[in-house]
Amino acid sequence: MLLDITAALRAPGEEIPFLHRDEIPPQDIFGDAVTFSQVLLTGHFSVTDERLRIRGRLTAVAHGRCAGCLKAVDYQVDVPFDESFVRLGCYPEGEEIPGEEAEWAYEGAKVELSHLAMTLAVLDLPIRFECGDDCPGLAGLPSEETQDTHACQKDMPDQHPFSALQQLLTKDQEV
Questions:
Q1: Cβ-Cβ contacts under 8 Å for 40 (sequence gap 6 or more)
Q2: With bands split at pLDDT 50, 70 and 90, how would you rate the model's confidence at 103?
Q3: 164, 149 Cβ separation under 8 angstroms
Q4: Neighbours of 2 (CB within 10 A)
Q5: What is the DSSP string of 115-132?
Q6: What pLDDT digit, counting tens, does each position of 19-58 carry?
Q7: Of 86, 125, 139, 171, whose CB is crowded by the most CB atoms within 10 A?
């Protein structure tokens, strides 16, 4: 969906508030389909020297499955952002737009924000969805508190973590 930036083009340097609803297509994340609803970008935009600055917040609800029991789980996405877009016609013809700026470009009085919304939402997702601490599928897994120390670290608490590798190498050489 397109954001109309005509007001900012008419008043360079002035920050214009906006509220923009968008859609993010279903994403395949590590083999699981994640869908999004209630995608909303809010904030301000302004145009200065051929650059469009858009800053604000992206909120959305991501729908996935619990990694333990496969129950439907909702995750609230809430991401601040501050991005600059470059106008396509501001570089001389034939000159390439630098890679970083090529991703966020606009032309005319409307800007496509779907790719920005999708990028922000996917980067905010947790590594895995979990339905809660009482999930039956995650009950047998070690908690974060028990994962802080490994078995080899319990035997050698005051030594460097790589010293365990040195001991293994020494043991292999003796055989």
A1: 19, 20, 21, 22, 58, 59, 60
A2: low
A3: no
A4: 14
A5: HHHHHHHHHHS-SS----
A6: 999 999 999 988 889 999 999 999 999 999 888 999 999 9
A7: 86
**Interatomic CA distance for residues 108 and 113, integer angstroms:** 14
The type of residue at 154 is: K
End-to-end alpha-carbon separation of the chain, Å?
67
User: Coil, helix or strand for 168?
Assistant: helix
Closest CA to 57 of 38, 45, 75, 40: 40
Q: How far is CA 97 from CA 25, 64, 69, 100, 152, in A?
A: 27, 37, 47, 8, 51
**Element at 102 (helix H, strand E):** helix 99-103
DSSP 5: -
Residue with the two structure tokens 């790589």:
162
- Against a cut of 0.85, is the pTM above it? no
Q: At residue 151, what is the residue type? A: A
The pair of structure tokens assigned to 156 is: 């050698």
Please give the Cα distance from 58 to 76 (Å, whole number).
10
Give me 77's structure tokens: 């996405």
Distance CA 48, CA 128 (A): 40
